[in-house]
């Protein structure tokens, strides 16, 4: 039925909470004029520490932000006209069909920018196969190495199993090489984000080993230090292990794994300032990233 909603509380029409030139992505995406990010409302996860929970977990409020697919295509063209370097769909999984149709409509009207699929990686391989040739850059999170943590902290079953399957499919489509233009802006490829969580909950070492062994040591990763306790993690004693930001020691332990495991490509945040980003008053400031090779 056309008005039926699924577990992500989303129906036939896409929900867009905002669209803007965003300067908080990796340098190869933000560039000088910003990534053209389209932030979808709702989500197929329920992360207790979600930094965007105001738009991902408030479906009754987000319903007012429904747009037509034609309007979604117009947003893409507007971002291109503003000079954005790419079109980045943030949390697109539950609106993948609508996204794909909007891309086709916008392309027919002259859109000529790389398409970035910025996802939590809890994606269907079958859907990703349908996106082959439509998406230029995959930007997935790999949140946990243990699916039990995925259930506890993101409320979904078998996260690690499905996320790794999805990322393998992304790698099949893109390979391990990143393609840049003459200005150093990413045009095509796979860049896997790893957010360091307190108390080892993200399983960084295990996930890095999986990336190296199952994909390639040349697969690009983005190591992120920006975690801070928000949403339920800040107030609910059940999630006390996530109730603080990561320590300097936890961060540098994660950093040391890059060289130890032979990870060759990607970016990493600066520890001192990264924890501030994605707070509402810092949302559009540039995150300081450095090339992983700078630390070899």
Characterization of this structure:
This protein has 296 residues and is of the alpha/beta class. It is 33% helix and 17% strand. The protein has helices at residues 27-30, 53-56, 59-62, 69-81, 96-108, 125-131, 147-154, 159-174, 204-215, 248-261, 271-274; strands at 16-22, 35-40, 87-90, 115-119, 137-140, 179-180, 186-195, 220-224, 266-269, 289-291. Strands 1, 2, 3, 4, 5, 6, 7, 8, 9 and 10 form a 10-stranded mixed sheet that branches. Strand 6 and strand 7 form a beta hairpin. Helix 4 packs across helix 5 and helix 9 (204-215) runs parallel beside helix 10 (248-261). It starts with 15 loop residues before the first strand and ends in a 5-residue tail after the last strand.
Brief digest:
This protein is α/β, with parallel strands linked by helices. About 4% of the residues have low confidence.
Helix and strand sequence: EHEHHHEHEHEHHEEHEHEHE
Q: Which fold does the CATH topology refer to? A: TIM Barrel
Shape: globular
Q: Could you list the spans in which at least 5 consecutive residues all have pLDDT below 50?
A: 275-287
| Straight-line N-to-C gap | 55 Å
Classification by helices and strands: alpha/beta
Structural key phrases:
11 helices, 33% helix, alpha/beta, TIM Barrel, 296 residues, 10-stranded mixed β-sheet, 10 strands
Secondary structure layout plus pairing:
Layout: E1 16-22, H1 27-30, E2 35-40, H2 53-56, H3 59-62, H4 69-81, E3 87-90, H5 96-108, E4 115-119, H6 125-131, E5 137-140, H7 147-154, H8 159-174, E6 179-180, E7 186-195, H9 204-215, E8 220-224, H10 248-261, E9 266-269, H11 271-274, E10 289-291
Parallel strand pairs: 2-3, 3-4, 4-5, 5-7, 7-8, 8-9
Antiparallel strand pairs: 1-2, 6-7, 9-10
């Amino acid at each position: 039925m056309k008005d039926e909603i699924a577990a992500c509380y989303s129906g036939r029409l896409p929900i867009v909470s905002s669209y803007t030139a965003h300067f908080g992505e990796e340098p190869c995406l933000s560039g000088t004029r910003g990534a053209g990010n389209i932030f979808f409302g709702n989500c197929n996860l329920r992360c207790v520490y979600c930094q965007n929970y105001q738009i991902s977990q408030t479906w009754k409020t987000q319903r007012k932000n429904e747009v037509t697919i034609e309007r979604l295509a117009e947003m893409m063209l507007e971002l291109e006209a503003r000079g954005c370097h790419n079109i980045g769909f943030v949390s697109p999984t539950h609106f993948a069909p609508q996204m794909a149709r909007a891309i086709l409509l916008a392309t027919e009207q002259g859109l000529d920018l790389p398409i970035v699929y910025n996802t939590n990686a809890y994606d269907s391989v079958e859907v990703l196969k349908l996106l082959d040739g439509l998406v230029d850059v995959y930007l997935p999170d790999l949140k946990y190495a243990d699916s039990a943590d995925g259930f506890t902290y993101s409320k979904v079953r078998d996260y690690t199993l499905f996320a790794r399957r999805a990322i393998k499919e992304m790698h099949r489509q893109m390979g391990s090489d990143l393609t840049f233009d003459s200005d150093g802006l990413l045009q095509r490829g796979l860049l896997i984000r790893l957010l360091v969580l307190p108390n080892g909950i993200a399983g960084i070492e295990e996930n890095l080993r999986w990336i190296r062994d199952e994909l390639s040591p040349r697969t690009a990763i983005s190591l992120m230090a920006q975690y801070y306790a928000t949403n339920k993690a800040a107030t609910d004693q059940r999630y006390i292990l996530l109730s603080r930001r990561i320590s300097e020691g936890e961060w540098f332990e994660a950093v040391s794994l890059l060289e130890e495991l032979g990870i060759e490509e990607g970016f990493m945040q600066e520890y001192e300032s990264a924890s501030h980003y994605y707070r509402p008053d810092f949302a559009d400031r540039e995150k300081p990233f450095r090339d992983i090779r700078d630390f070899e």
